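Example record used in the benchmark description.
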Amino acid sequence: MFSTVRLSDHEFVPENKPLGTKYDITLIGSTGTEISAFGAWIEHSAFGVQEKKRMTIRGVRVDALYGITGGDLTHSRPIGNATWQGLMVGTPATGVARGNRLQGDATLTYHLNSQNLDAVFTNIQDIDRLAAHSQSTVTFLNVPVNGRGEFEAGLAGNRIQGGFYGPGHAEAAGTFEQSNIVGAFGAKKQ
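Model output (structure tokens):
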């Protein structure tokens, strides 16, 4: 099922607050009455987590959490072993901390021989509580990369998907769900 999203359906708050820079990636966040967003623009891609509040779908009122990513896909696999370093953002999907902003490090490693990718998210912190998150590491191993430079593995609640962006696979970005975290990530080739 496809859903159309219209800009007029959202209230945009003009202030984007920088939340810090690491690996030459600056995270920004904005909070509004209808939508909150947390993520970053890199040179060839963008990633983030959004919470749409008080949305009505077919007469039912819901809040929605989702990871988003996009940009200039490379449309091919990397041509050698490589590593990308960057950031992950997320939020707990359920519980009292739902909607709190999580931030951590992202390391993606591509293995040419197997044409698989390992994605490891570490040092996960709850920046709203200024404390370590209960799940400090999230890992996806042996994620297949297709000929278009896109990767995907798993099922709802434990999945990752993304791709390589920019010339020479300069960036990698995507979304994930695991350990009650809805997240997104972006990283630069090392």
